[in-house]
Every structure is written in structure tokens, then in C-alpha cells.
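It is worth pausing here to work through a concrete case rather than discussing structure prediction in the abstract. The textbook approach is simple: state the sequence, then state the predicted structure, then interpret. We follow exactly that order.
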Amino acid sequence: MPLTAENAAQQIQDRLKDVQRLIHQIDEERRRSEGNINSLTRAQQSNLPPSKLKSLYKSCLQDAVVEEATIRNALEKIQEIRNIRNERRIQARNAGNKEAIRRGALMKMVQISAQTLPLFVSKPGEKVPPLCGAIPAESNYIARVGDNVAALVKGVEDEENWILAEVVQFLQRQNKYDVIDIDEEQKDRHVLSKRKVIPLPLMRANPDTDGHALFPKDTIVMALYPQTTCFYKAIIHKLPQSATEDYEVLFEDSSYTNGYAEPLPVAQRYVIAYKPTKKSGSSGGGSSSVSSA
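Step two, the predicted structure:
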């Protein structure tokens, strides 16, 4: 059943109230845990018996577990809000209500989408799921309607390029995607075989807990060139050092003596495994020297 504007607004308001409540709860739990940590610190300095210290350690650990669960709950509510808004956006598009977005605003939306991508923080022994950081999708995975993907499309003189696109639908019988270029100046629709569509990460990998889910230094990748909607061949120069940092990549550029331009930041969401095209051979998405146009 389609989600009406009224229902969507009500659902969002309900979840915003939940988020507000959880934020207050997190604040209370943090203050309580700080009290227990201070007690533990004083106890360590007082040379209390191991049994007493053990009890305080357990209290601090339990505080951390409760606080983590509350934070994860709040993040789930935020993601639910994003899903509701995305569903309404898709419904509006299908109904023919298309809002023109200026290029500057589009680039800002692309950036914000990467910054607000959910962060996966694994629990001890937990495996990093597909589409988190550099972990690819499983072979039978089908991207959802509204998801952003990298799509290999034909451009000028039939040259193939990887562009940022949005899934309109998956044609099950043909095993093909129907996608739309997110660039408002183009808005071209493309029906592409599954092998010409790469799902983008749905979560960021946390360097502190899951560094192995990031592309290693010197890995050849495809990355979205800043202020464009095209992916180009690049090399990982520096990995994110924190959950808020981007990769630094070196884009292929024949105008430089070593064949690569100076490092540029690219968010995890827009760095994917390298896949050459037929026309460009080893150059992936094409030469990045023209991508700033």
C-alpha cells in the first residue's frame, strides 16, 4: 500500500520523538557510567581487594553494554526516518512529480548522502556484512528501488563510462536493471544487464573496529571524482583513520609524469572495486583529466 504524505509525516514524527527520548536516555546512562568509572579509578588507587575491583569492572562493562544498545536503537530509528522519506520520494517520482535540482544542490546531496551513510560497528566476533565498506555484494544480490549504484552506460562515440545512477526497477525476466542518471542535466534512463551495475555500499566500515573491510593502500579502484557524477580509475593513497574521514585517492591523469594526479578525498560510499570497460581497457571509467568539466 502506498505511503500517504499524512502517514509518512506521522511516522516520522513518532520516530523523532523516539530519537529525542533515546538521546536523553543516552545522556543519563553516560552520566551514570562516568560515576562508576570514577569509583573504579578511586578504587584502583586505594588498592582494594581484587574481588571489589572485579565487581566495579563488571558494573562499568554493563554500563557500556546498555549505552551501546541505546545508541544502536537511536541509529535504527534515524535509519527508519531515512527509509520513509526515500519511499515518499520514490512515490513522488513514479507519480510524475519531479523537482528540478540545481547542480550545486545535487553535489551537496551526494556529499551528505555519503556523510550520513550508517556506520557499521561490529561486535566482538561479528562478521562484516556485504556492502559495508569494501565488502562487495553477494552474487545473487538485487539492489533495491531507490538505491544508488554505479552504472556502465554509453556516452559520446559509444564510449562506456561508469556513472552514479538510481535504481528505478529490476526487470526479473530479463535479469536487467532499469536505472536513471542522477544528474538533473541528463536524467537519462538506461536498461542495463546486471553485470553493468555495481551496488554502492550501504554502510561505512569503522576503521577502529573493522579496518579489514576497507580497501588496502595502493589498491586500484573506481572512485567518484569530486563535484561530478562519474566514476574513474584511481589508486588508494590513504585509508580513513576515523569513522568521519574519507579515503585519499590518486586519480589516473596522463598530464602528470607518474600518470596520477594529486590526492583527493572520496567518501567510502563512492569507492568501489575496479572494473575495466571494453572501450577504455585498462583505464576503467575513463581519463579523470576531463572529469572536472
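Step three, interpretation. DSSP finds four helices and twelve strands in the chain. The helical segments are 5-45, 50-94, 103-115, 207-210.
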